[in-house]
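Sample intake sheet
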Amino acid sequence: MIITTPRLRLRPWREEDREAFAALTADPEVMRDLGGPLDRARSDAKLDRYRAAFDRHGFCRWAVESLVGEVLGYAGIMPLEPDHPLGPGVEIGWRLMRRAWGHGYATEAATAALADGFGRLGLAEILAYTAPDNLRSQSVMARLRLRRDSARDFTAIYDGAAWQGLVWVARPPTGR
């Protein structure tokens, strides 16, 4: 399963992607809004979750790579954990290497992942959430034309600290 856009490929993660994924998750600026960088064990565990999600559900946080094969980060949908404050559902997320920021890749990859979720998977709704100070992700959500749903905002405890999530909603294009 590969999703191709004009500039990118979204594909399942491979074993040989571990180094690139570890570099992504070790960057303090890239990981600032998620509690900071991950050590190698936590990075590998996260990648294993993404690979298992694809095996189990047929979708995941896809590896995002350039058309020449350079891994730029990830984007895609994942099922929410059973104990998530938003309850059952599917959410979209993205994270890119710093060198890939500012080129529209997050919007391009997320657009493709949403189209796959609504088209191939037939989902009725895909959620997105971010912290109040993550203006980059909020800008991507605006470019994706996600609808803000403040009634679903939540606070959760991660690693002993309270984290506030602002929620947006994507629905299939009309006429479907």
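Comment: The CA atoms of residues 83 and 169 lie 19 Å apart. The radius of gyration is 15 Å.
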